[in-house]
Amino acid sequence: MEIKVLQRILKANDGIARENRRYLTEKGIFSLNLMSSPGAGKTSILERTIERLRERLRLGVIEGDIATSRDAERIGRLGVPVLQINTDMIGGACHLDANMIQNALREWEPGEVEALDMLIVENVGNLVCPAEFDIGTDMSAMVLSVAEGDDKPKKYPLMFTISEVLLLNKMDLIEHTDFDMERFRKDVADVNPRIRIFPLSAKTGEGLEAWCDWLVKRQEG
Amino acid sequence: MEIKVLQRILKANDGIARENRRYLTEKGIFSLNLMSSPGAGKTSILERTIERLRERLRLGVIEGDIATSRDAERIGRLGVPVLQINTDMIGGACHLDANMIQNALREWEPGEVEALDMLIVENVGNLVCPAEFDIGTDMSAMVLSVAEGDDKPKKYPLMFTISEVLLLNKMDLIEHTDFDMERFRKDVADVNPRIRIFPLSAKTGEGLEAWCDWLVKRQEG
Question: Which in A95, A144, A192, B45 has the greatest CB count within 10 A?
Answer without folding.
Answer: A144
